[in-house]
Amino acid sequence: MVRAVAYDCDVLVIGGGIVGLSTAYAVTRAAPGTRVTVLEKEPGPARHQTGRNSGVIHSGIYYRPDSLKARYAVRGAAEMIKFCAEYGIAHEVTGKLIVATERSELPRLHALVQRGRENGIPVRELGPAQISEYEPEVRGLAAIQVGTTGICDYGSVAERLADASGADVRYGAEVVRIDRRPTLGVAVRTADGSVVRGKVLVNCAGLHCDRVAMLTGDDPGMRIVPFRGEYFDLARPELVRGLVYPVPDPAFPFLGVHLTRGIGGGVHVGPNAVPALAREGYGWGVVRPLEVAGTLGWPGAWRMAGRHWRYGAGEFRRSLSKSAFTTAVRRLLPAVTPDDLVPADAGVRAQAVLRDGTLVDDFLIREGARAVHVLNAPSPAATASLPIGRAVARRVLAAL
């Protein structure tokens, strides 16, 4: 006989970033009356990946047409613009340029044109003179203009999702232990000794999602390797009108150093991508030996490093040398000088790496008994957060 349990909620979400809060929003929209509790260890929402990115609403042009990233980003971009308009959140549909500065990049640029068309995204091809019409200070051999890209304030989006979901969102609630009983549900203990009981657990813990999965008793089959993205603000924002990106290397899930005019009018430059020495390692001075040891103890980290060390060496160089970073920016924006680059807050990307060293390049959602784990949701997860939330909610409600 199954004994009665006093549940505090039906759905217990760990993580108060945009994906966790979108999941709570989707659950209560799909099944009104469902009791949802969100546990977030920080004193407010969106303190990590959500609140430290460049604020871009991505079009979905970069992603394989059959991938979750492509489907959710294309759909999510339109939904995010609608959501911002509905709730009065600052946003703008700016469009962006993806610029080839070397002949070797032209085949990849043309491949992006085809991919954009396959994903249903309007794309316009530009020559050097047309590039100057959009961005007078930007130089390139060719470019594509993507009209559906935009910008918004994702921190405000997360706050509105928390309010509109009607969930019980508890801040300062760091999860330290999880007891799961497949016939009963889950009990979660937080650092202050409180216990919260739910019928189904949703793991949206971002930088700590693999640890939460293991606390639940599930093997995630991957580990998070944190990559720090370092940004600068442009001291002469008048040099850039909108959003300017390089042609990305398809071997990596990073988009390269780009220029982004934000909602406030300033221009963000970056990020690069270097391994961080802590899950929340927002600077070289933040080192957590146990977390570094955990990364080094994962075979996939060594295999990834062996495979991509040349790329990594370039990123390290740009991290340690402002001159090298400036050189990378000047490929797109020749007028920029080191004095134009003012250090800004860094972000950390929660990148899932498999045991064989593969960088997971799509969203990764897995299920366990009475649990749904979101195990890879870096960029463009903020753009795609509304469709991701619905996808997770469907699994959660099926489990209920």
Q: Could you characterize the architecture of this molecule?
A:
This protein is an alpha+beta fold. It is 32% helix and 26% strand. The protein has helices spanning 18-30, 68-87, 106-118, 128-134, 154-165, 209-216, 289-296, 299-320, 322-330, 385-399, and strands at 9-14, 36-40, 56-57, 91-93, 96-100, 123-126, 142-146, 150-152, 168-171, 175-181, 185-190, 195-203, 222-229, 232-234, 243-246, 258-261, 267-270, 274-275, 341-343, 347-354, 364-368, 371-376. The strands form four sheets. Strands 1, 2, 9, 10, 11, 12, 21 and 22 form an eight-stranded mixed β-sheet that branches. An eight-stranded mixed β-sheet has the order 6-7-5-15-16-17-14-19, with helices on both faces. Strands 3-8-4 form a three-stranded antiparallel β-sheet, covered by helices on one side. The relative contact order is 0.20.
Put the structure in a nutshell.
This protein is of the alpha+beta class and 400 residues long. The chain is built from 10 helices and 22 strands.
